[in-house]
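All the exercises in this workshop are built on plain-text protein records. An example says more than a description, so a record of this kind follows:
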Amino acid sequence: MEELINLARIVTDRRLKVLPLLDFAARNSSNKEMALVQLLVAEQNKSQKQAIKMLYGKNDETTQTAFRKLKSRVQQKLLNHLFFLDDTDPRHPVSRRHEHQLLSLYFQTSTLHAEGEIKAAEPLARKALRLAMSQELTQYAVLCAQLLRSIYADLRIPVRYRSNNQQLAKLQQTLALEEEAAQVYWDVKATMAYTVRARRNILDTMSGLVKKLAELNRQAGTFITFLYYYRTRIVEQELIGNYEEIIQITSETAKLYELGTINPRRFDMRYNDYMSVYAHFRSRQATKGLKLAEEFVKDFHYSSVNWLYFMEIYVLLAIHAEQYGQARELLGQARANVHFMKQRDLALQRWDLYEVYLQFMRPDASPLRMRNFTTFVQTVPDHSQDKQGYNVAVLILQFLYYLRQRDLEGLLVRLEGLRKYQQRHLRDAGALRSQLFFRMLAITVKSDFDPALSQKLAEPLLSKMQAAPPPGEAFAEIEIVPYEHLWNMTLEILKATAAQVSEENKQLV
């Protein structure tokens, strides 16, 4: 009872007179703070000037000053509400819930310790340490053990002090191994975020890095060393294009998770599911991958940026499975997401590219869609200065567009662009499919757009392309529509053009 009395005294004596939180019960009142929050949620595209006018009725120097103060208060209160988020939804990472619980407990313990309530802090600190150990959060376990070290010293309990010191020493050794593994993993991750050239350069060292992480995981045997080893194995297979191995890794990991070998409080199965779906996509198992995507998408929360990442692969799988109606529907769902426009510019450009490819494969009669499609194809810039895969998709789409338009001048310009791009950027073995498809497109011009002759001359190249392995992430080649499907579309365009030319010639006679 004494500890509860002391806690009540601390809270009542030190409490803030006004809680720095928003009053969500004041929705229908004239509360400016809640009015701004409602405006931010409902009208995401409003400018600051429009917001001031809506809140204060006019936009002048006085209202601008008032708005700046209001915005600052609301921002801080919204940050304070981060302490009270609901993490019980299973579509959010399960680890977040347990980590937040531990952080709250550690904060309470350290506050009591700082207030001199050492006896009350001791059982909470032990509870926090047990939680950290069960969740394999070594960095927090070290913090809790360090706090207990000072508590036991102050309480003069030598037996517990010595026992805690031994545990702290082991935890610090484990943490050192985890930090070494973390440095390896994040170095790899950072390199993957750089240029295609950097990805190719790291290929030579990946095998050694994976072995190093395997050894660190053997020594530490903790969740985090396993996680870095597991993810780096996947990165290695991504780089070389061994997507069948990724399917195997994700399948084995799912089994370990079901058996309880992997800490269920820490492991995010959604990443494993995503990589499985992605590997099916890259290994040309679109139908099977599409079924998996339909099953796994429910595990991703609609408000999460991970949902949009997953939807990208979902859309591409539908396109590769030639389910163009489903792909268009999925793309519409993605665009309707309130977080869609918050993505980086490159991500938004990718979505635009998916949409115009869908429009090309299955044209929509809508005049607006047709205008948007034509404008995009004619004006789209190179996707990336580093030539990371999608430039190939842009160049191919432009060539096929001008082929369908029977624009010989535009076609010859694009053909020259394809030839130069191939010479400069597609000389590696990993770009073999793109090299072969470029040559197939060039045949259409050399054969004077004769569909039968083009098909005959391209047959050997088509066979080689179908036998070529999928390129790895080190080469960053992404086929939005499989080249085989695009070649079929190319032949259809040539046949339609030949029939139209024949009909026009008959009318001239």
Notes: The first helix runs from residue 2 to 14. The chain is about 75% helix and 0% strand. The chain has four domains: 21-84, 94-173, 271-380, 383-509. Residues 271-380 form one domain.
